[in-house]
Amino acid sequence: MASKSNVQGAIQPPPVLSDSHHSGISQRLLEEAKASKSRLYSNRTVSSVTARKGELPVLPPDTTREKFNAAIDELQKILGSQHVVLNDKPLEDGWYIEHPNTHDAFHILDPNDTVSSAIVYPGSTEEVSAVVKWANKHEIPLWPISMGRNLGYGGAAPRVRGSIVLDLGKRMNKVLKIDPDQCSCMVEPGVSYYKLYEEVKKSGYPLWIDPPDLGGGSVLGNAVDRGVGYTPYGDHFGNHCGMEVVLPNGEVIRTGMGALPGPNGTDNPTWQAFQYGYGPYADGIFTQSNFGIVTKMGFWLMPETEHLTFMVTFPKDDDFEEIIETIRPLMIKRILGNVPQLRHVIQELAVTGKNREAFYQGQGQMPREVIRQHASKMPCGDCSWVFYGSLYGTQKQIQDTLEIVKKEFYKIQGARFLFPNDVPEDHYLHSRVRVCSGVAEIRELDWLNWKKNAGHLFFAPICPTRREDSRKILDIVSRIHKEYGFDLFPTYCIANREMHLIVNIVYDRGSEENKRKAVAAIRKMIDECAKAGYGEYRTHILLADQVAHTYGWNNQAMLRFHETIKDSLDPNGILAPGRNGIWPKKYRGKGWELLYGDNRQTSAPKTESKL
Ligand code: EUG
Fold this sequence. Notes:
Blueprint: H1 30-41, E1 49-50, H2 65-79, E2 84-86, E3 91-92, E4 118-120, H3 125-138, E5 142-145, E6 164-167, E7 175-179, E8 184-187, H4 193-203, E9 207-208, H5 219-224, E10 240-246, E11 252-254, E12 293-300, E13 302-303, E14 306-314, H6 320-332, E15 341-344, H7 346-350, H8 368-376, E16 385-393, H9 395-409, E17 416-418, H10 428-435, E18 454-459, E19 462-464, H11 467-484, E20 490-494, E21 498-508, H12 512-531, H13 544-550, H14 553-569
Parallel strand pairs: 4-6, 5-6
Antiparallel strand pairs: 1-3, 2-4, 7-8, 8-12, 9-13, 10-11, 10-12, 14-16, 14-17, 15-16, 15-20, 18-21, 19-21, 20-21
Helix pairs in contact: 2-3, 6-11, 11-12
The structure holds 2-methoxy-4-[(1E)-prop-1-en-1-yl]phenol (EUG).
2-methoxy-4-[(1E)-prop-1-en-1-yl]phenol binds at residues 213, 227-228, 444, 458, 460, 491, 493, 500, 502, 504, 538.
């Protein structure tokens, strides 16, 4: 396992958007991306290519190779054979920009475990609908992805082995509209934040996009998974307006005002102006579900404004509760206007892009004293927590608000403000300034260098912005990290009354033991947090059953509600079975569910029973 097979020397530059590669990096970030890639490759000690075993491609459940091959032939006639690709080559983990759609590059099990049988590339909503009808006819499961990054949550991998990955990004990647009056846009699944940023710039309109920490993901896909960004429009689902959805029977609907036809076959003129339309608000059931395939989505764009992003450092680990109590009213009163982050000082070490061995050569958790020694020599100084906040408006408004924010944070002894001019040019704060003012970045990826062969796995509980709750969750998470020997990287993305706590488990993909520990640790955190009343906002495909079951009030009433919807919309169970813990009827109770305490090292069903 530990054999050195470094792929050094011939590191290819990543594809760029301007080469009409939908998933490429922006030209403006190319040099940074190249440097990031070579840093990462220098931390690889095992091959990132996994050989295949057995007959390929891997079949979906409940079919024969003859039936499967005949179905694929038929699909090739529908889409053109060049748009149907069998997954029968070695699995390459690639890199952030050259990410695979064959499996999960950040595999937490054997990479061969969660693989598709084939990847198909529809070019339009009509073709998506045709593929869905084909899947119903042959009862073959589909796994739709937008672009398939979904880092730390399963990548492009299907939950059911042998599913057909429906890659919407490659050919459906247009920004369909940018409206400077309504300040909105309409995108297809293959539009990344990098691309939307470029298109808005090209348009010349004074509008911002809202990027998450990394800009490579799909704007539509991120919102459908209810992801978060960092301008005042950080709630991605909350700032969407209108969808087009292909249902599991192939029917196409438009939600909100889009359901009302515009004159002469045009899109409804109010589609991106009013979210709700008339009747039940359907959009929510197409997020974190497997009830439909979103092929178009509208978003609101924020008008450009002046802004200021700054850091506040706090001296003691135990300042944590006071920091949280100080932040809450500032957020609820909207004095802090975006989604700010609170991080532990160890993250200042991690975002330098250095391997942890540059700071510490020991095993197990990096001792607090070692973190202190290194932080003392960095711009943040000897501190415990670092707050990254932003203010928006006119210069006068920003200065007035800053006085209020300073007055509140200075109540915590030793609090220190750092502004962009106070830190060197290569400091992470400058990247944060851009993210918080609508510029899609790649800098955050540098965390991956913390370990060799690193993968990320995110534990993401929702934490009330309140002293007692945040303390309880942090205690659980700290104890379990210590038990399993992982460095603790907590990032609080503060919405208002709640914070998305993102705990980044960085593990070594080259070590089976490290992978097993990462999974055991996250399963235990999910379980203990749930017992204390806290649940995740999002999770990895292989942890979905466990998380879904924690939302079990009244004897799993919510899960049954989801199953009722699933069975009525998707009676053949073809759409993303198991996604978000929702299993169609023909899979339920047949051993597919991966619950806590079931320590299977595979996603396959417990028994060999037929569907
Ligand atoms: C991050 C944030 C997330 C997430 C995964 C990673 C950022 C880490 C708010 O949501 O789901 C720095």
